[in-house]
Amino acid sequence: MAMAKLLRHIDISAYGSELMVPGDLNADGRLELIFMQGPGMLAADIFKPGASGSYGALYTTAEDQALDCLTAIDADGNVLWQQGRPWAMDIPYRQHGGAWMMIAEDIDGDGKSELVRIRGNQLQVLDPASGRTLRSATLDSDGYSSLHTARFSHDGTRHVVVKPCSDGLTGHPYCCPLVAFDSTLRQVWAPRDFPNAGHTPLAFDVDGDGIDEFLVGPHCVNADGSIRWSLPLDKTHDDRRYVMDIDGDGRFEQVLAFEAEGLVVSDLQGHILWRRAADHCGGANIGKFLADVPGLQIFANNENWRVNGKDKVASYLLDCQGKTLWESEYDRYATTIDWPTQHGPQAMLAAPHDPTVTDQRPFVMDGMQQTLARFDIPQTLKKHTDFKLPHNRPCWGDWGDHYSSEVCDLDGSGAKIILWTRKDLWIFDAKPPR
């Protein structure tokens, strides 16, 4: 078995977190890495110790709730700045969700990225050079845990849209409401609901006028927050979303992993083109995995295959028209990478999506499910059962007991594969080993 080429290892145990965002903080063309230690979406009052409600007491501890530390490093591991105190207890802190609670983007059009994040009921814009708060807005709830940006004007700035990542706020449906702010954090949308909203909204200019529409749930939303069109999808919500030209006809399609609605492909005028049924389609990625198959291919999974036994297929590969190319009993998530194989120009950085699998390490897989390369990193990590924790709601993944991954070009020399835990970060070459 080939081993991917290790370029660098960095000890991040002093500040590590699964919540890491890469961003060019000083406009030098190289990416820095920003780690955020904290409870993630559990920072809300409803998760505090002693809180009444459906989540129960001790879902987090007071120490979990108080943790708020940002650390920026360069790709060599040098700490550039740190705001807050990192975790120092012998037991792991609890962090749930929060993957979209911080972004590094140029929202004010000055050519440099800002850090934008949610902490409690505060929406904040931070100075990328120091982590200092430049401006903030008070949200109407501390339950918002997901933020996204969109070009809702022609002035070169980006708006910020915030929403809950999962459970809706009191009186609102799942993942609702949505609120939009301009780059100065002036509110431009009052809180509004979009039924069947999910986890992966996406800004995209569907009509070519230079202003983004906002694709959320089954809806296409105009820049003013009004609905342009909606797909007839009313079972649950989206877990993944892409907009790409998957069939090579010069027009973009929308690909949705829409849980009980299955994998759904639509045009950008509000019409479903085809779908693949599933109990719970929770993941998808798209690439040119098979050179002899027209268009792009879609790898997707069916998360509930083990739970209800209705569908023994855990993952599958489809062509651009929905034809099944193969099916598998293994549940995996994957990210497309440019890694030439004997079958096509791209491969997948895949990882098990099953806590019963002993080896949770990511691996490189081709379009015919063959493992091409593995990574020389520890096979197992400590689990929550290895600690005496003061929590009564243990949940797989909340304690740093899994691998995080990112594929990005750190310095303009080509894509790299970044794998990390709360203690270690590894940078690998995203090319087949010689």
General description of the model:
By secondary structure, the chain is mainly beta. Helix content is 2%, strand content 36%. It has helices at residues 62-66, 305-308, and strands at 2-3, 6-11, 20-23, 32-37, 69-73, 79-83, 102-105, 114-119, 122-126, 133-138, 146-150, 159-163, 178-181, 187-192, 202-204, 213-216, 219-221, 227-230, 240-244, 253-257, 263-266, 272-276, 284-287, 297-301, 315-318, 324-328, 332-337, 347-352, 363-365, 371-374, 404-408, 416-420, 424-429. Strands 1-30-29-28-27 form a five-stranded mixed beta sheet, with no helix packed on it. Strands 2-33-32-31 form a four-stranded antiparallel beta sheet, with no helix packed on it. Strand 17 (219-221) and strand 18 form a beta hairpin.
- From the N-terminal CA to the C-terminal CA, the straight-line distance is 12 Å
Give the CA-based shape: globular
Average pLDDT score: 93
Oligomer kind: single chain
Could you list the spans in which at least 5 consecutive residues all have pLDDT below 50?
A: none
| Rg computed from alpha carbons, rounded to a whole number of angstroms | 21 Å
Give me some keywords for this one.
single chain, mainly beta, five-stranded mixed β-sheet, four-stranded antiparallel β-sheet, 2 helices, globular
Describe the protein's topology.
Layout: E1 2-3, E2 6-11, E3 20-23, E4 32-37, H1 62-66, E5 69-73, E6 79-83, E7 102-105, E8 114-119, E9 122-126, E10 133-138, E11 146-150, E12 159-163, E13 178-181, E14 187-192, E15 202-204, E16 213-216, E17 219-221, E18 227-230, E19 240-244, E20 253-257, E21 263-266, E22 272-276, E23 284-287, E24 297-301, H2 305-308, E25 315-318, E26 324-328, E27 332-337, E28 347-352, E29 363-365, E30 371-374, E31 404-408, E32 416-420, E33 424-429
Parallel strand pairs: 1-30
Antiparallel strand pairs: 2-33, 3-4, 4-5, 5-6, 7-8, 8-9, 9-10, 11-12, 12-13, 13-14, 15-16, 16-17, 17-18, 19-20, 20-21, 21-22, 23-24, 24-25, 25-26, 27-28, 28-29, 29-30, 31-32, 32-33
